[in-house]
Amino acid sequence: ALQFLINEIKANNEIQLYYDGNFIRDYMHVDDVCRAIYYVIHKSDYNQIINIGSGIPQNFREIINFVMSETNSSSKIAAIDAVDFHKIVQVKDMYLDVEKLNNLGYVDSLLKYELELIEVIDYNLMMRLIEDYTVNISSRIRKTIKLTKNNAKKS
């Protein structure tokens, strides 16, 4: 649902949110999910229930507001009542207790949540940001090596 809504926001379409988006979810980047699964497979005892999540309650409306800001969207948001089916099968607020996962040594990635959202909003933008960062670091390393070589020649 989040990816669908992000695409609708990018297209400046009206979006409809249950509870005006005022509910809590536990979001986690797919790379982090894969790392967490690895930890569970290789470090936990058999027949254990271990929640995989960030353990961080995130307000859905704040995520939508961030996406709208980052995309300069003119989308309108309409608050709607949840349909009966959703009221029955889905809890309004949900995030996970990840203490068991953390006890295995798992640590959430260093990626900031906003960067993960930017990747979902615009993969190409994320790749440009990473490339700019990498070029900047590479340039600084080359300068440091050159200075070190020059200083070694003077000695």
Question: Mean pLDDT, nearest integer?
Answer: 83
Main beta sheet: 2 strands, parallel
Instruction: Please report the total strand number as a whole number.
Output: 4
Give the helix proportion (percent range).
Answer: 55-70%
Which oligomeric form is depicted? single chain
Give the CA-based shape.
flat
Topology pattern, helix = H, strand = E: HEEHEHEHHHH
What is the number of helical segments per DSSP (H or I, 4+ residues)? 7
Rounded Rg: 22 Å
User: In angstroms, what separates the terminal alpha carbons?
Assistant: 63 Å
Q: Label the structural class.
A: mainly alpha
Strand content: 5-15%
Spans where pLDDT lies below 50 across 5 or more residues: none
| Order of the strands making up the biggest sheet | 1-4
Structural overview:
This protein has 155 residues and is mainly alpha-helical. It contains 7 helices and 4 strands, in the order αββαβαβαααα. The N and C termini lie far apart (63 Å).
Descriptive keywords:
155 residues; mainly alpha; two-stranded parallel sheet; two-stranded antiparallel sheet; 56% helix
